[in-house]
Amino acid sequence: MAGAVCAAALAALTAAAPAQAHQRPHWGLKDTGAAGASDVRFRGLAAVSRHTAWVAGSRGTVLRTTDGGDTWRNVSPPGAGELEFRDVEAFDARRAVVLAIGEGEASRVYRTDDGGATWTESFRNTDPRAFYDCLTFFDPRHGLAMSDPVEGKFRILSTSDGGRSWKVLPSRGVPAAQDGEAGFAASGQCLVASGPEDVWLATGGAARARVLHSADRGLTWTASDAPVPAGDPARGVFALAFRDRLHGLAVGGDFRPDRTSPRAAARTTDGGRTWRSAERSPDAYRSGVAWLPHSRTAALAVGPTGTDLTTDGGRTWRTVDTGSYDTVDCTADLGCWAAGEQGRVARLER
């Protein structure tokens, strides 16, 4: 019932009169209070609950709140100031894993078990050809990270101890990459899992945008074309969200601000074997997407030019906010968070 109420309230965003705006669900900006945070772009976000969330971004910055965003702690790993954190996965208020992206040794993984008081570097990429983009977890122990193609195939990194150690999986079950194909480290959502074994990987930069799916935790994959803008290094699928192993959403487009992004959203109802374009897509490039909790049809997509809402499972989208966000994440207790450029962090308020 709570989820239905939440979805219905969000649908009202598209119909309420301007005089009622203060009563609508809306993004409530949070003052992180961190020195210099206004210069940080938070593309990594892990929502644990309405009260607890982690954000990770440029200049090696990691912040955490446990009181709904009223106060924040700067829990950045020491010595990480030159790293670009683009993904964070948190299991609770104390345990989290963050990914730094970049060529060669710039790609690293850190883990904390004490709320960020201390961090352990658990992986450092030593292959100059690899560039890690995203990570995801099936449960608190099992997870994957993905790199852009090495020797013609996406490279998959695996952990079975919660991110304390990692190993590269064999590439024989990975389809060949297209020329120029890669992932986009834009929101921490180019690699997403649902359930104990299913995982999806979003691609772009090539002739066709694709979504790769594995049903065995990354050992073997199949690839399907996604009907979003492609054919250019700046175009493709930037983010995925699955509410179960069948129903998924894909958003993306062309990230260049002077380019349009028609057909920037797609949906699947068969686990990613086939994708259909949204009948009415967001008006511009979108980099993050999340299903609303306890809803089978409602989701939010975010990007630099605004937030869009669907209440029909991704068939149609409508812009409901014009603030700039790169990533979005929702929790089972009806908590939704967003983060982006200039240190922006927000929670959906009702």
Description of the molecule:
The protein is mainly β. It is 3% helix and 40% strand. The protein contains one helix and 28 strands. It has one helix spanning 2-11; strands spanning 26-29, 42-47, 53-57, 61-65, 73-74, 84-90, 96-103, 108-112, 120-124, 131-137, 143-150, 153-159, 167-168, 191-194, 198-202, 210-214, 222-225, 235-242, 248-254, 265-268, 276-277, 288-291, 299-303, 306-310, 318-321, 327-330, 336-339, 345-349. The strands form six sheets. Strands 6, 7, 8, 9, 10, 11, 12 and 13 form an eight-stranded antiparallel β-sheet that branches. A four-stranded antiparallel β-sheet has the order 1-28-27-26, with no helix packed on it. A hairpin with a 7-residue loop joins strand 20 (265-268) and strand 21. Residues 1-5 and 11-22 have low confidence and may be disordered.
Break the fold down into its secondary structure elements and pairings.
Elements: H1 2-11, E1 26-29, E2 42-47, E3 53-57, E4 61-65, E5 73-74, E6 84-90, E7 96-103, E8 108-112, E9 120-124, E10 131-137, E11 143-150, E12 153-159, E13 167-168, E14 191-194, E15 198-202, E16 210-214, E17 222-225, E18 235-242, E19 248-254, E20 265-268, E21 276-277, E22 288-291, E23 299-303, E24 306-310, E25 318-321, E26 327-330, E27 336-339, E28 345-349
Antiparallel strand pairs: 1-28, 2-3, 3-4, 4-5, 6-7, 7-8, 7-10, 8-9, 10-11, 11-12, 12-13, 14-15, 15-16, 16-17, 18-19, 19-20, 20-21, 22-23, 23-24, 24-25, 26-27, 27-28
